[in-house]
């Protein structure tokens, strides 16, 4: 249909047909980045889950590959990971050979257990281990294993969700086949209904050192509704994860980034993630017919101390510069209070907007009637039909909002539209990087400390960009607007 084409992203991965949710098995094999994903090839709804597969050499241009792991009589192929068993610790490869192994959940209505499969052709196809499951605790809510090699203790460590118990279980193995229980973490942070898709990684802290970060996806029960990914910063000693404090972070201030996974086997331990750009609250009702499901852009992740000294996750899109076409001329420099500047947008192309803005100081001697006045800087993507997508900054509280309510392509009770976050409460300056691609919006503010990911469904093309200063003037310290070259051939 027309909406299948109109809403199809041009630089984000989406399946040709069928339904896609979580990214799975993210791994770099030395040449290719693999993206496996939860996939129903038969219908644009969740069900009959297989592992779909695509490969890339830059995390942006993706090549579709055959289904890697099918649904079987043992159940659907739920989320999981891949590892490189380079030294044949499993003993499942031919003598002197290693290869890729997948550890994932098989789910049937009454049982969820962890399965192992190996690939002798570099991740193209997988053969199930003959004595599956490798880990079964007689539960129907035990899923989404992530496995990594923990060098200090020289063993594989698995994190896996005991979903309804709101716990993340830790197991260890030397052969990927036999697993010993180490510890449990949680309930902690958000309660919600199910804990899903845990990820544990050691990440660089900007300025020096590292921390272990445990990501836990929760659904439903996110503060913005439905699916959300929370994270804990702490230490992992090979047995137990201990958070530094009782504070939790959220990977997103909006509601369409879920089940985030981090790439394994990256050079220099670079932390790169991809999440599902969706939410269980409405993913099966989105206004496309033949396909549903989108992945976020790949994101580089680091840890950084915020204005108050807390260690927080910073995420920024990775490698987008390579897709930039010639800059769209837009010479806005200074906006007086109440004024705006506008530019026409090229049709059908993804856009990359970076802005750095300082809003004028609030006058100290405002007359009584103006005491409540604040200064806002507003970024509007709109059209002549009166639709608008708005991202705004309130300078006197340091908060940012995102408003997708004034778009008319989709309505559903849970498809709420307004989200906000605080950047820095004492700062009239903000920087923002916005990527708009068909029905997706990703916002990276404050150097990536505040990230908002949102599905957006305008009824017609958003064909202008307008910048508005309201209540106070603003100086645009830097502005760059680029079209992004289409990379997904769909
Ligand atoms: C998360 C999730 C996982 C499960 C998969 C099923 O979105 O519910 O817990 O493995 O999706 O597709």
From TrEMBL:
- Taxonomic classification, please? Bacteria, Pseudomonadati, Pseudomonadota, Alphaproteobacteria, Acetobacterales
Which residues fall in a coiled-coil region?
A: none
- Please indicate if the UniProt record lists Hydrolase as a keyword: yes
Any one Gene Ontology MF annotation carried by this entry is: hydrolase activity
Q: What CDD domains would the database entry show? A: GH32_Inu-like (cd18622)
The keyword Hydrolase is assigned to this record: yes
Entry similarity comment: Belongs to the glycosyl hydrolase 32 family.
A Pfam family (short name) is Glyco_hydro_32N
Q: Which InterPro entries match?
A: ConA-like_dom_sf, Glyco_hydro_32, Glyco_hydro_32_AS, Glyco_hydro_32_C, Glyco_hydro_32_N, Glyco_hydro_beta-prop_sf, TAT_signal
Residue span(s) of domain Glycosyl hydrolase family 32 N-terminal: 12-305
Q: Which residues form the Glycosyl hydrolase family 32 C-terminal domain?
A: 342-479
Please report the name of this protein according to its UniProt entry: Glycoside hydrolase family 32 protein
Sorted alphabetically, which keywords does the UniProt record give?
Answer: Glycosidase, Hydrolase
Signal peptide interval: none
Q: Which domain of life is it from?
A: Bacteria
């Amino acid at each position: 249909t027309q909406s299948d084409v109109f809403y199809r992203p041009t630089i984000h991965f989406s399946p040709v047909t069928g339904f896609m949710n979580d990214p799975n098995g993210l791994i770099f094999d030395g040449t290719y980045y693999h993206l496996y994903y939860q996939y129903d090839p038969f219908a644009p709804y969740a069900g009959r889950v297989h592992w779909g597969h695509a490969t890339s050499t830059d995390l942006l241009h993706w090549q579709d590959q055959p289904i890697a792991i099918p649904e079987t009589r043992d159940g659907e192929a739920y989320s999981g990971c891949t590892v490189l068993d380079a030294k044949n610790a499993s003993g499942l490869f031919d003598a002197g050979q290693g290869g890729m192994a997948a550890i994932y959940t098989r789910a049937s209505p009454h049982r969820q257990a962890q399965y192992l499969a190996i690939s002798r052709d570099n991740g193209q196809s997988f053969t199930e281990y003959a004595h599956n499951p490798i880990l079964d605790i007689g539960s129907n809510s035990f899923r989404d294993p992530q496995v990594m090699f923990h060098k200090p203790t020289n063993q594989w460590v698995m994190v896996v969700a005991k979903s309804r118990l709101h716990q993340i279980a830790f197991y260890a193995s030397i052969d990927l086949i036999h697993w010993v229980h180490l510890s449990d973490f949680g309930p902690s942070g958000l309660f919600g209904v199910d804990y899903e898709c845990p990820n544990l990684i050691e990440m660089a802290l900007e300025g020096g050192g590292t921390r272990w970060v445990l990501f836990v996806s929760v659904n439903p029960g996110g503060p913005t509704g439905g699916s959300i990914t929370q994270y804990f910063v702490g230490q992992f000693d090979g047995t137990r994860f201990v958070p530094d404090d009782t504070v939790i972070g959220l990977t997103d201030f909006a509601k369409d980034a879920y089940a985030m996974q981090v790439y394994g086997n990256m050079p220099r331990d670079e932390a790169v993630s991809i999440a599902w750009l969706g939410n269980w609250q409405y993913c099966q009702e989105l206004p496309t017919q033949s396909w549903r499901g989108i992945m976020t852009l790949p994101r580089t992740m680091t840890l950084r101390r915020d204005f108050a000294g807390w260690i927080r996750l910073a995420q920024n899109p990775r490698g987008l510069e390579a897709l930039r076409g010639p800059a769209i001329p837009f010479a806005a420099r200074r906006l007086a209070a109440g004024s705006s500047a506008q530019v026409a947008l090229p049709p059908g192309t993804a856009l990359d907007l970076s802005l750095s803005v300082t809003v004028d100081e609030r006058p100290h001697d405002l007359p009584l009637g103006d005491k409540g006045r604040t200064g806002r800087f507003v970024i509007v993507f709109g059209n002549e039909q009166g639709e608008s997508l708005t991202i705004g900054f309130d300078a006197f509280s340091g908060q940012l909002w995102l408003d997708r309510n004034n778009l008319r392509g989709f309505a559903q009770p849970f498809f709420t539209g307004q989200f906000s976050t605080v950047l820095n409460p004492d700062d009239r300056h903000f920087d923002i990087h916005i990527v708009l691609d068909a029905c997706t919006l990703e916002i990276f503010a404050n150097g990536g400390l505040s990230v908002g990911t949102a599905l957006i469904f305008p009824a017609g093309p958003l064909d202008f960009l307008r910048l508005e200063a309201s209540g106070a003037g603003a100086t645009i310290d830097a502005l760059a607007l680029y079209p992004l070259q289409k990379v997904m051939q769909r």
